[in-house]
Specification:
Radius of gyration: 23 Å
Distance between the termini: 62 Å
Number of strands: 22
CATH superfamily of the largest domain: Aldehyde Dehydrogenase, Chain A, domain 1
């Protein structure tokens, strides 16, 4: 980057931006076989950005065939680890080189603030590629302790063709969490981005080939979930399907895997994460600040959002006053303004869904302490102000169902046991948090919470070295860390008789 975000005229850049709108198969951009397209809408204005190729079963077939041919040829799968590492490091550098373009595509496509795209999403994707590139020549196979009469080798081999379906809330970063370990393991890849945010995926595929990844190894087929996504999950020549998105769609992905070739399935699905604040925690400013950002960052469109704030009796008003003060500073603004902290909801359908939950919360008897309205209607875009509910009962829909918007449900509790019961009493188990100065309480609650990640005295702490994923209906398997490599490799035992 040559300039700071606030020094760039993002609207001027947007007017000059060219969009890649065709599928990327076998190293080339191609129209959908049917010629069909779908509209990519700017959620900040409600206006058309581009018409994107709408792939279907035939396009998925072309992409999988290309990926399988590239895998069998071995130009990537059989490449020496050090060489594959160098290429992937070059790929990461190209992502950074094109960071302003990718950030602009991300913001125009799904509505998040440009500063978030530029400072978070794009460099985060590049770091992910770098991290897995560095891991390539540092992961060892095993020799089993079989005794002197035999040599048993335990090796990990690439699966072959991996398909991925990724969501619209962090389009490039969620894709990188898939394609970085997939490519590092030597597999070929077919990506189906969300139809709500396909533009960065279509650009980054071109950068992969420019970096030296052989044509056919990295393919992108934009299209609708019920056509392209379903075809990818049902394909008989796809060895693994990795998915991030809603729990409802995750269930269908599992069914498609069973109906086809029993392909391996990895799911990172929804969440309704509890953020528990105990009365003994001494820094309520810190807890409240974290609670506000846990639900209002990225317009609340975060699978791990702290959408349930569990407050021990006696501190509710003090914490919510602080949350409310922070919410006032996070009012939705123009996503292309570098000072904006909260952008647009991804599309009209999602906006209506969020507003529907707000209305349901009112009807169920919860009170809106702050927000609850659509704003900036004159822009033509889809903006909802941060919303805080109090008086929420654990049985209400707003306390049990994933809203995927800037809506916080505050629930009070008396005892630690009651907090644990409320926290666990949902179908989800992605992340959770406990704020307390008592180390015994911290460890006890962390052990009792059913979640893939438990934060203690923080929220949304993150590093590529730790795995991310959920339990219960929040998913199967883990992204990030070396554990992600396990999803995209197959264990093989080679037994050599030395007698």
């Amino acid at each position: 980057m040559n300039a700071k975000p606030e020094q760039i005229s993002w609207h001027e850049r947007a007017r000059a931006l060219e969009f890649r709108t065709q599928a990327f198969i076998g190293g080339r951009y191609l129209d959908a076989a049917s010629g069909a397209t779908f509209d990519s809408i700017n959620p900040a204005t409600g206006k058309l950005l581009a018409r994107v190729a709408s792939g279907d079963k035939e396009d998925i077939n072309r992409a999988v065939t290309s990926a399988r041919a590239a895998f069998r040829k071995g130009g990537w799968a059989n490449l020496k680890p050090a060489k594959r590492k160098r290429i992937m490091l070059g790929f990461a550098e190209l992502i950074l080189k094109h960071s302003e373009e990718l950030a602009l595509l991300e913001t125009l496509d799904m509505g998040k603030p440009i500063s978030n795209s530029l400072k978070g999403d794009v460099p985060g994707a590049a770091r992910c590629v770098q991290w897995y590139a560095e891991a390539i020549d540092k992961v060892y196979d095993e020799v089993a302790p079989t005794g002197p009469g035999a040599l048993a080798l335990i090796t990990r081999e690439p699966l072959g063709v991996v398909g991925a379906i990724v969501p619209w809330n962090y389009p490039l970063l969620m894709a990188a969490w898939k394609f970085a370990p997939v490519l590092a393991s030597g597999n070929s890849f077919v990506l189906k981005p969300s139809e709500k945010s396909p533009l960065t995926a279509l650009k980054v595929a071109e950068l992969a080939v420019e970096a030296g990844i052989p044509p056919g190894v990295f393919n992108v087929v934009p299209g609708l979930g019920q056509t392209a996504g379903k075809a990818l999950a049902l394909h008989m020549d796809v060895d693994c399907i990795a998915f991030t998105g809603s729990t409802a769609t995750g269930r269908m992905i599992m069914q498609y895997a069973g109906q086809s070739n029993l392909k391996r399935v990895s799911l990172e699905c929804g969440g309704k994460s509890p953020n528990i604040v105990m009365a003994d925690y001494p820094d309520l400013d810190k807890a409240a600040t974290a609670a506000a950002h846990a639900i209002f960052d990225n317009q609340g469109e975060v699978c791990s959002a702290g959408s349930r704030l569990l407050l021990q009796e006696g501190i509710k008003d003090a914490v919510l006053e602080k949350v409310q003060a922070i919410a006032r500073t996070m009012q939705p603004g123009d996503p292309l303004d570098a000072a904006t902290l909260s952008g647009a909801i991804v599309d009209e359908a999602q906006m209506k869904r969020v507003l529907g939950y707000i209305e349901a919360g009112r009807n169920d008897g919860a009170s809106i302490r702050f927000g609850g309205r659509r704003v900036r209607e004159d822009s033509g875009g889809y903006f909802i102000e941060p919303t805080v509910f109090e008086g929420v009962k654990p049985t209400m829909a707003i306390a049990r169902e994933e809203i995927f918007g800037p809506v916080l449900s505050a629930i009070t509790f008396k005892t630690v046991d009651e907090a644990i019961e409320i926290a666990n009493d949902v179908i989800y188990g992605l992340v959770s948090a406990i704020w307390t100065r008592d180390i015994t309480t911290a460890h006890r609650v962390a052990r009792a919470l059913r979640a893939g990640t438990v934060y203690i005295n923080c929220y949304d702490a993150d590093d590529l070295t730790v795995p991310f994923g959920g339990v219960k209906q929040s998913g199967i398997g883990r992204d990030k860390s070396l554990h992600a490599l396990e999803k995209y490799t197959e264990l093989k035992t080679t037994w050599i008789d030395l007698s």
